[in-house]
Amino acid sequence: MAQNGSSPASPAAPRPSRRHTGAAVRRRTRVAVIGGGPAGLLLSHMLHLGGVDSIVVERQTKAHVLSRIRAGVLEEGTVRLLRDVGLGDRMDREGKPHDGTVIAWQDRAPFLIDTHKHTGRKMMAYGQTAITQDLYAAYERRGGELVEGAADVRLHDVTSDSPFVTFTRDGIAHRIDCDVVAGCDGFHGVSRQSIPADVLRTFERAYPFGWLGIMSETPPLDDIIYAQHERGFALASQRSPMLSRYYVQCPIGTDLADWPDDRFWAELKARFPKPLADRIATGPSIEKSIAPLRSFVAEPMRYGRLFLAGDAAHIVPPTGAKGLNLAVSDVFYLQRALVAHFKAGDDRWLDSYSETALRRVWGAERLSWWLTRLLHVFPEQDGFDTRVNQNEFDHLCASPTAQAALAEQYIGLPLET
Ligand code: FAD
Ligand code: DHB
Q1: Running along the chain, 417 residues long, what does each successive block of 10 average in pLDDT?
Q2: Is 318 an annotated catalytic residue?
Q3: Where are the alpha helices (DSSP H) in 297-347?
Q4: pTM of model > 0.70
């Protein structure tokens, strides 16, 4: 069952105003996991399977975490890993396998990035919200300890042998002593910020546009489709037979209030070739939001006993559907390293964690950047850029070698073992 820091099982309650002193509610665990998104929950789940205890500290409530609508497409490696750790049942029942993703380029015939033909592997449409629900359910079944609504989370002494984490909950101070801190708290989290500026190198590209997304209870198109159009990029995706997810590229600073549903559907359809546009079933949106696009990598992913995983260390623009998949591969490497450390005293994988994870991260960064550049309209784009993009797409359509190379990257490189 999910617990919180003020549960009856906690030691004597401290005076509410005390913060991070000897009177704080104090616990100990092997791994303090900061962030209860997919990376943090999966890490804790896999550590548990490996016999290593952890406590997850999440800033938001569970309801808030589950209300976020983000990823929808999983690589085959992610699908296999989720099955291996006992999280595949619902995904296999409700998720939809795809041979790959289609590119609809202006009014040309749709082109399939055929991962199945070129790699023998399929993608899976299964939403991040469902994965997070599955992870919470597994967490609660095993009685894992999760702190919701933790405020003012801080990391201490991460370069010593005895790091600890402090936070407040309902005004009460808490302290978790641990051996290792796993920073899984996303792009805006505290973990990466706890690494000194002279240690951390960051690499970034901000894009001059975002994605305006809606969810609607309408039957989706059969395929997941990226539309390249002179009005801007659009994407048709799905969550279930009666739940569609669509996006259109929008300028930075777009106000949701300016996008009633009718305007969204009209713009979406204008960006798809007519035969596809005619098949898009419209209806009232049940969610509407804007996501900025950014490429970002922080190196190294380790500082003393602090290890970063997922969006805490890197962001990709969603074109390419790599962010959650990268979070899962980081977690695979990190749990393997931590289990070897705690169970066998073997630090080889811990010492190579940052390097191994970053190799995969940069592969996904490159692909996501390339697809973003190929498929979006940039404000400063001139005729030269347009012709180069056109030529790149023509080459892709004509060259089985280029198709195989793209399919291999799109399905995701195998995890290094
Ligand atoms: P997060 O999901 O951000 O979780 C971090 C958690 O830490 C949050 O719950 C947050 O509340 C918590 N937190 C933050 N600060 C603190 C703090 N100080 N203390 C404690 N907790 C804290 N990826 C794909 O692979 N496929 C896709 O199809 C795809 N589509 C996407 C579409 C969109 C529109 C967007 C925006 C993203 C998409 N992604 C996709 C990316 C994917 O959603 C992210 O990469 C993924 O959420 C990363 O998981 P995470 O656990 O690392 O970070
Ligand atoms: C989604 C699907 C994608 O193929 C992608 O690149 C980004 C997001 C989605 O379903 O949300």
Answers
A1: 31 36 86 98 98 98 92 95 97 96 95 96 96 96 94 98 97 97 98 97 97 98 97 97 97 97 98 97 97 97 98 97 97 98 97 97 97 97 96 97 96 84
A2: yes
A3: 323-344
A4: yes
